[in-house]
Design goal:
By secondary structure, this protein is α+β, with helices and mostly antiparallel strands. 51% of the residues lie in helices and 13% in strands. It has a 5-stranded mixed sheet, covered by helices on one side. A 3-stranded antiparallel sheet has the order 2-1-8, with no helix packed on it. Strand 1 and strand 2 form a beta hairpin. The N terminus and C terminus are likely disordered.
């Protein structure tokens, strides 16, 4: 209940007043809303994987030769090199045994298979990943195409579960990190907060940033923002959480002043 006796509307984490209401709500209400937001964010991530990543992987596998493998940390490639296997807006695959740089993809991330290592190109630079030694890894259409068809749904399901679980755990850990500064500020601002209420407020303040990030993923998938703009959205979703964290304190009810003992209008001794 708020200070004026009216019940708090503790279902929306979109406004500072709505976030502040979670401080007075039951923990189960906050957990329910966190799960709903986690499901929205997970749906955005899964959609992106299925719409922008999986089709490129499928095309790349279909363009592999019938034979080929990685053996003794080296790629046995019977086809032409360099060769572009598949390209999308976000991801591209190619084979360039000598890394001659003849294939420059317009994708935001380019994965290039060389003779002895994989090169990954992205906006912030590139990374070299050596092939594992002592293992034989299929690198051909004959073996990988049925494997991808059988495991694609499982991979998407695991990715969804990992995303949802990671979000919930990160929110709880961050709320544990933030609640004491929130309580301390609330104490000096004379707000009606204890440790539990400060933790709930901290947990709710992280949800608007998560929704912004989910929207950014969808906008990027539909090519409405580019990778640089998406990077700004990624940074902004952290800042938004901090803004909500402290602005919401202004909407937490204050501690009412204590009434003096006795009746101030009573008669004194005769």
């Amino acid at each position: 209940m708020s200070a004026d006796g009216k019940p708090n509307f503790t279902w929306e984490p979109f406004t500072p007043r709505g976030v502040a209401a979670f401080a007075q709500a039951r923990l189960s209400r906050l957990l329910l809303v966190q799960i709903l937001v986690a499901l929205v964010a997970t749906a955005a991530v899964t959609w992106f994987l299925d719409d922008s990543i999986c089709p490129v992987i499928k095309t790349a596998i279909q363009n592999l030769p019938a034979t080929g493998e990685i053996r003794s940390a080296k790629l046995d490639w019977p086809g032409d090199s360099p060769k572009l296997l598949a390209e999308g807006r976000f991801l591209a695959f190619d084979v360039d045994l000598n890394h001659d740089g003849k294939i420059n993809s317009t994708a935001d991330v380019q994965i290039e298979f060389g003779r002895e290592e994989i090169w990954s190109f992205a906006l912030l630079g590139y990374m070299e990943i050596p092939y594992p030694s002592g293992r034989i890894i299929a690198f051909n259409r004959t073996e990988l195409e049925p494997l991808w068809g059988a495991w694609k749904s499982t991979i998407l399901f695991v990715a969804a579960m990992v995303t949802a679980t990671s979000l919930l755990v990160s929110w709880w850990l961050l709320a544990t990190l933030y609640f004491f500064p929130v309580w301390l500020l609330g104490y000096f601002a004379n707000r009606d907060l204890n440790f539990r209420r400060s933790w709930r407020l901290s947990g709710a303040a992280l949800l608007p940033g998560a929704l912004l990030m989910a929207a950014g993923i969808v906008l990027y998938d539909f090519s409405l923002v580019d990778l640089v703009q998406f990077g700004f959205i990624f940074a902004a979703h952290f800042v938004l959480g901090w803004i909500y964290l402290f602005v919401s304190l202004l909407f937490v009810p204050g501690i009412p002043p204590e009434l003096p003992a006795g009746n101030p209008f009573g008669k004194g001794p005769v």
